[in-house]
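Re: Re: ligand-bound prediction request (bumping)

Still looking for help on this. To restate: I need the protein modeled with 2-acetamido-2-deoxy-beta-D-glucopyranose bound, output as structure tokens. Inputs repeated here so nobody has to scroll up.
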Amino acid sequence: MREEVIFSGGTGPKSQTAESLHHQKLPLFQFRSFRFSFLLLIGAAFLLMYYGVSSNSLSWWESFPLHVQYQKLFNNTNKKHIPPSYKVHPKHMVLQKEPDAPPVIQYHPAYARNYQFVMDDTDACKTKAPFLVLMVPVAPSEVAARDAIRKTWGNETVVRGEQVKTLFMLGLPGGAMAELYQEKLRQESSLYHDVIQSNFLDTYLNLTTKTMVIMDWLATRCPTAVYAMKIDSDMFLNIDNLMIMLQKPDIPKLNYLTGMLMWQRPVIRSKNSKWYVPEEMFPDSTYPTYTLGMGYLFSNDLPAKLVEISKSITAFNIEDAYVGMCMKKLGLAPTAPPDPWQFKAYLSVYNRCEFSKVITYILSSAKDLLKYWTDLYKPGPPC
Ligand SMILES: *[C@@H]1O[C@H](CO)[C@@H](O)[C@H](O)[C@H]1NC(C)=O
Ligand SMILES: *[C@@H]1O[C@H](CO)[C@@H](O)[C@H](O)[C@H]1NC(C)=O
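Reply:
Sorry for the wait, this slipped through. Here it is.
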């Protein structure tokens, strides 16, 4: 499993993938000469040995300097991915102590049927279910992201002869602006009929709940769609290429989950990490194979199964790894896409030819989505 193990900082929403480093061309890694890589590997091996014997309290991973460096790098370059309201507040984890019992961190359950839909004014699946439903988890405040999607890939209704529908999933807005955002959502809903809202508090730590609520909606409101995709609001999606992939004869229609596969990702135990997961929630040191949260596609029989199995799986805040855990409990596993390179994460430079071939890319702003989309579909061959 290549440099991935050494470079990547862990796991979580489209975070630290080797892919990203390969494509990102960040200054630190720009001099990718063979000698540099070799020295790095030797250095890494020594560091691992050193930390392996000297540190018992921290896992080698957490104490591995490159990982820290990478996370700093990531934090600096991708600030825009994390809306300011989406900060991790450990105080939301309630510490419960019964007499004589060890402390337990209680996490809000992700079992979707604990929640109700409070806004669901879409006729998406009322008459004929679409072939593909794109479900976009988005924060109430991210109006610009929704608008950009509505003008780009979210505005596609028929792709290669198949019906497609894009819908947004939200929880309840919190904080001082809550009323304002809620009113804005009501307006959007009556204008576009593409907003679904459930009554959990929309926070970063509730992203797993949001994903499971998406699954619940698909299972109960749109069970006859053939495929669905959970795709983040900061994504470029080449929906045409996605459809070409789905129309290949050997793509399964059952128990199918695909995207950018993550193997053997270590669970982050460092408390100040965005991806921190306490052992009480997830005791293993690595996650089961999962698909990176930026955009994963699944056959629409899976949502009902995932919701059902999630009853018995403790929620933790890494939604994509949680889905991987549900898959594992179901005795299933994600499948690599026919052309794995089409699921791209980080983008360094926009390239029209490249964008005409991929399926996903993570972007840094709604503005970029509009700009690249317009450029990609202008007249003339992209390559
Ligand atoms: C979506 O596309 C249609 C034409 O295909 C256009 O009339 C409509 O304005 C577009 N919607 C948005 C939100 O841009
Ligand atoms: C998640 O949502 C529930 C239900 O609204 C809320 O009580 C809880 O505080 C939220 N959890 C976090 C960590 O924000």
